[in-house]
Specification:
Blueprint: H1 14-17, H2 30-50, H3 54-68, H4 81-101, E1 107-112, H5 129-141, E2 152-161, E3 166-176, H6 178-188, E4 209-213, H7 219-223, E5 233-234, E6 236-238, E7 244-246, H8 256-265, E8 273-276, E9 278-281, E10 284-287, E11 295-296
Helix pairs in contact: 2-3, 2-4
Length: 300
Amino acid sequence: MSRLNITHLKPLPEYRRAKWAGTRWLDYSFDEAVAEDRVRGRVLDLAGRRAVDLNEQVLLRRLTRIMINAQSEPPESLASAAYMYEARAPILDHLTRLVHEAQHGPVAIGALIPPGAKFGPQHLAEVDPRKLMMRFRSELNRVDAAEADGYLFATLHGEFCLSTGHYHPHQHFIATGQMIEALERLRSRGKYQIAAINASPSGRDTPALQLRKLNLDEARYALSYLFQHFWPARWSGLSDDGRKLRGDRRRIPEPFHSAWLAWMHRQRLQDFALLMHLDVRREGLVVVPPKNAYFNGGGI
């Protein structure tokens, strides 16, 4: 029998209705996800017509059909916003429950933008999300996270830089107890004191590791950022006086957007997650002692 992973978690609808968790449940609705899939279907159809390679044509046409039928039958594909909406809901239910129980000290959310982490379109097909999450785990273990009380749940996300043509992966996470202290130690390390390339629109540098306390009344909305249905594109670069700047989020341009969708279609949701001191069992997502140092979403 294969090991349980985050895709096996059962829905907990009572935690979606809980008033204490905020008035906003998710960052987008199912109808908005279906509308996004229709847009993706049109983009993929055009990309498929332009593709020269026969195998690429077949894949893009298959993805086009998937997107068109997403409303009636959300496909099991990470390329579909509708599927992501449905697949992430039970996971967020269980994380909301853990936050509500608050048995493991303070709760924080944040993001890590690894300095220098990037890959070009020609290397996208070779990128393994499991290796990216294992690298994050290794960084945490260097600051004694494996022995810390509390837990961490992290996911992989990314952006496309319009000025360089590279994809930039990063992690979003929720952490509790001494795991927050481990993250603070990681933030103090030399390379993470360097500001991320994607500075804010105001020109202020964005820290490579961002960390803040999670307010209970925003829990549902904040947790939804762990699983986003798209990777945005931004322009980033230097101003005339040397400040780091970045533009607003927008859709990744073609052909890079279709290439990203094709890559997402080949991936598994559980490979985008890292669980430390958490395990998926029949009763749901549970906290485990530090001696059971870490489990990932699918058993790396």
